[in-house]
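Tokens as discussed.
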């Protein structure tokens, strides 16, 4: 059997170097007595059993991504079978986030992903924040449909006093004669970022690890694995809370590796662009972990799709074909990334705002950056129906309302009111017909320093027609100043956001939007290029310094 193709990645060497450095710097270690050298040599000669852990995270669709260049669970199925043929002592893990958001999930609420993981032979998955996008009842149903085991030791149900969906606090699995213990934890921010419902709450992950790891050891676990859906900073804290041999995580959508308290932490990027493989070598007599190897297996067109997987997913063929229908073309890359659209002007956000304005005949347009959901960069080439639904997955209408200049300024203040406090606030205002500047060093509610409308200074007493989406017009994302405004185009008469975007994509042979300098972000009066969570970002000047400036 040929070996799966591998990415020449620095992952293994980086982790090895970090682990060696960590071992060398452990406090309290002393040189081993000479008398123990023979015992250590004997220990080094101990036979080992090899265990393999395959892992992915943040996988929202089963078809390839990046115009077919990466991902695809049919390819992953092929790689998994190749690895199983070489290493039968294998566990397949998924570190959270799969039910939503995706285009297919707007139709099937994540059922298609459960079918995919069942077909793949997934062993264990930790709950991710997006598992609750359709509410707790849908999640419970998806758990019943799963042929694999969900984990979420810190996700609790107020009504039962037990874990949500009665997920086990941990599992201990005999793999090749080695007892592998796995527990899963999820970030508490899920309470606010998704829809777990009022009866679901999240306990402290550190306290949970301190509680569970000794129990797992007492019940015979020889290897302890944390399967997490946390920020890497939280993973690092978790590693210092209890003795964990390995943390396999998700959530960040980028491949990363770290070591904390001697515990390796590994994550793959999103959409199964690659398959992570960790090889554990465990002593057959001591049952202790002797060493680890790390590999990254790329999912590219060179990896054939597994026909058995395609057969299992056949019921979704019609939807996949429909979503692949072209609706337009772009001559330039379209920035649909979440971070960009929630912090600054992008060519796609300006294009969407222009489309809303044109569709309603309004003087200006204002949309929340969080309404652009794809979180990707669309390369030049065909635009598909899938792209429309990925950008605007949620139902809503494009409307036009009447607002005074004072209300418009108030809306802009609301839009930037969290720009200094959050890395990517969804309320961030993307605009058409408006140019504005804001300073994150000023207090919320007084950050807008300059506004022009179609080249003229904003008139607080004048009435303007404003295009936006029905969610914002009804007060969504904190835009309560729009509630009660007179409609020029009502939600009932306005086109859907998806129809307006599709029409705009089809309006010319190939679109080529650019940025226009509509939004200027300042830090203490100077142009600000740093991200909100950048630890190296310059600090805001003092009030005295600003006054002097």
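Sequence:
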């Amino acid at each position: 059997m040929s070996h799966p193709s591998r990415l020449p990645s620095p992952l293994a060497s980086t982790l090895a170097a970090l682990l060696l450095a960590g071992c060398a710097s452990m406090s309290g270690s002393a040189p081993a007595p000479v008398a123990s050298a023979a015992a250590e040599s004997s220990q080094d000669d101990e036979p080992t059993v090899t265990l393999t852990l395959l892992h992915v995270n943040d996988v929202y669709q089963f078809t390839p991504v990046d115009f077919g260049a990466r991902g695809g669970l049919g390819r992953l199925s092929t790689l998994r079978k190749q690895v199983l043929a070489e290493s039968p002592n294998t566990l397949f893990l998924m570190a959270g986030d799969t039910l939503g958001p995706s285009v297919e999930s707007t139709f099937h609420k994540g059922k298609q992903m459960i079918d995919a993981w069942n077909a793949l032979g997934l062993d264990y998955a930790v709950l991710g924040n997006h598992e609750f996008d359709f509410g707790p009842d849908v999640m419970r149903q998806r758990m019943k449909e799963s042929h694999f085991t969900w984990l979420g030791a810190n996700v609790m149900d107020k009504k039962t006093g037990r874990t949500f969906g009665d997920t086990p606090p941990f599992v201990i699995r005999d793999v090749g004669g080695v007892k592998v213990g796995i527990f899963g934890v999820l970030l508490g921010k899920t309470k606010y970022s998704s829809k777990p419902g009022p009866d679901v709450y999240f306990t402290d992950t550190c306290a949970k690890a301190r509680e569970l790891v000794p129990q797992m050891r007492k019940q015979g676990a020889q290897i302890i694995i944390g399967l997490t859906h946390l920020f890497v900073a939280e993973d690092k804290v978790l590693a210092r809370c209890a003795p964990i041999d390995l943390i396999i995580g998700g959530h960040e959508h980028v491949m990363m590796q770290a070591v904390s308290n001697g515990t390796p932490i590994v994550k793959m990027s999103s959409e199964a662009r690659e398959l992570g493989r960790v090889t554990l070598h465990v002593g057959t007599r001591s049952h202790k972990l002797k060493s680890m190897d790390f590999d990254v297996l790329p999912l590219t067109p060179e990896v054939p799709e597994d026909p058995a997987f395609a057969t299992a997913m056949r019921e979704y063929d019609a939807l996949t074909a429909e979503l692949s229908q072209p609706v337009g073309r772009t001559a330039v890359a379209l920035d649909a990334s979440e971070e960009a659209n929630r912090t600054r002007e992008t060519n796609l956000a300006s294009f969407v705002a222009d489309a809303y304005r044109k569709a309603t005949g309004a003087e200006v347009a204002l949309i929340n950056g969080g309404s652009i959901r794809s979180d990707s960069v669309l390369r030049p080439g065909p635009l598909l129906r899938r792209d429309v639904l990925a950008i605007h997955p949620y139902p809503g209408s494009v409307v036009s309302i009447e607002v005074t200049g004072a209300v418009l300024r108030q809306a802009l203040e609301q839009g930037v009111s969290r720009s200094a406090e959050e890395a990517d606030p969804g309320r961030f205002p993307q605009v058409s017909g408006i140019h504005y500047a804001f300073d994150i060093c000023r207090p919320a509610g007084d950050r807008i320093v300059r506004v022009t409308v179609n080249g003229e200074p904003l008139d607080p007493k004048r009435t303007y027609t404003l295009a936006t989406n029905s969610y914002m017009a009804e007060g969504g994302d904190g835009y309560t100043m729009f509630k009660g405004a007179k409609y020029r185009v009502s939600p009932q008469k306005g086109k859907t956001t998806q129809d307006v975007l599709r029409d705009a994509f089809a309006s010319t042979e190939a679109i080529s939007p650019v940025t226009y300098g509509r939004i200027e972000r300042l830090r203490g009066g100077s142009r600000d290029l740093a991200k909100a969570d950048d630890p190296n970002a310059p600090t805001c000047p003092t009030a005295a310094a600003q006054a002097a400036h």
